[in-house]
Every structure is written in structure tokens, then in C-alpha cells.
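Reopening this one. Same input as before:
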Amino acid sequence: MYKLLLIVVMMSVWISIHLLQIEEELAMQTLFLGKHAVNRAVHAAAQQLDPEAFGDGLLQIAPDAAAETAARYLRVNLRLDENGMPLSDSLFKHPVEVVVFEVVNDDRIFPYTYRNDTYQYEVTLQRPGVVMIAHVIYPRAFQLLDSIEWHIKGAAELVTG
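Same output, byte for byte:
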């Protein structure tokens, strides 16, 4: 009888450990999905030239067009609605919030080192670019891990040449 009880206990431990491993792997895949989405969003945003400045021979990013493009890319890649809320077919259950979006134009001296002490982020830009930090919450699958939240950071420069 005690062997049967031992087998049941050991199976419970084994299943718990296995589910924890699956949960951790799903969390890492979610982080990578978020990072890829932020990278795509900032790269698309950094290519939004200001036509007025371009007419004057300056390479600048149009801030409004960049913000709109970044938001659209983030929504499409993470399956979010206009307010950042996940759609029914999205991996996420909580809203994704862009906490920092900054366009760094040629009003700064390059190379320019962008620093954000709040989110512990630093990046050096060689030319005009875009910086984004998004807050993402992992939608736990098995409730084995505590809540996991990330501030996913990304930056991209205007591509010239």
C-alpha cells in the first residue's frame, strides 16, 4: 500500500515539475514574441521620413507618422485592438502598454546616447532614430509561476544610403 502511495506522490511531483518547465518555456516564447514585435515596430517607425525636412535636405523622422506606424505594427504583431487590449485570438490576456516612445531627431548631436533611468535602458544612436519601451504581462498557462511582467525595449535608426 505504501508503494502505491509513493507512486502517486512521485507522479504528482513529476507532473508539477514538468508543468513548471512548460510554463517557463511558454514565458520565454512570449518574451521573444514581444521583443520581435517591438523591434519590428521601431524599425518601421524609424523609416517615416519628414517630407518637409527632406525637401530642405534634412533627414528627419516625422514624429506623428512614426508613432502611428509603431502602434500599428505593435497591434498587428501582438494581435491587439486600438486600445492595446488583446483580441480574442491573441496570446495575451492583459493590455500591452507603450510606456516610452521617443523620436530622436537631428536636434541632438550624434552619436547620441539615449538614457532612461526609470527603465534602466541606454542605447547609442548614430543618426536619427526611435526608442520604444512596452510593458507586457505574461498570461500564465498553469498558474505555477508568479506573475511575470517585462518592459521590452527597442531602438532603431533611420536607414540611409
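So the earlier flakiness isn't reproducible anymore. For the record, The two ends are 76 Å apart (CA to CA).
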